[in-house]
Description:
With 281 residues, the protein is an alpha/beta fold. Helix content is 40%, strand content 16%. It is built from 9 helices and 12 strands. A 6-stranded parallel beta sheet has the order 2-1-3-4-5-10, sandwiched between helices. Helix 3 (70-91) links the parallel strand 3 (53-56) and strand 4 (94-100). The mean pLDDT is 97.
Amino acid sequence: MVLITGILGQLGYDLAKELTKRGVEYVAPSLEELELTTEHGAKDFILAKKPDTIIHCAAYTAVDKAESEQELALTINGLGTRWVAEACHEIDAKMIYISTDYVFGGDGHIPYEVNDEKKPVNVYGRSKLLGEDAVCAMVDDKHFIVRTSWVFGINGNNFIKTMLRLAETKDKISVVNDQIGSPTYTVDLARLLADMAASEKYGTYHATNEGFCSWAEFAREIFAQAGKDVEVEGIPTMEYPTPARRPFNSRLSKKSLDEAGFERLPTWQDALKRYLVELNQ
Length: 281
């Protein structure tokens, strides 16, 4: 049996659908049943259900808000993950931890390899790195750390939905053009996570849809595919200040997937096309 945390989020929702398709039994605790700000809240449900695998999607993900709610972000993503990992260890379960490109410093132009230096530039990145460290320390060798970026799915808010909403009232918008990364469709990521859960190819992986773009390029492709006549002006990050610093380089290398024999995700343009169809159903 698989236990999914964070089923109400974009990834947890699609992961549950993917496991259902495959006939894999899963359980998905509510926020009340698995609560990451206390040790008992994080552990009790897991220890009672004794799953074979835990896929830990739940997280504090409000990147800008984390700058003013540092203690809460570090507790949920750091300590909360540690408690989940400890429970995993107690019942000898596999653990898959969903992490982020934000654990890196975001310098340069070369895609990050899984073992490159971690140097997060904001509270959210630091909190997720604490979670990674906890999983490595507590779950012995039976763990996967999967870093992803720029996630979008049907169940929740994301950049694509924001752009489409803006297109209803604007014919020109400004979007940053100096942050480069890869959009990731949760339907595609969920398939990969299900494959990992069925394997014993433990380790750290990077998983995004193939190809790189800036946020401005992403926005232009969204409007092009959606048939929206909106002009996108690319602007530097310094003209769009936010409470949390963002990494300029969010490129992630997928060599680890290749070496383990996992299939890479489709291109982000293909993923966007399928997502827009899903949105319109």
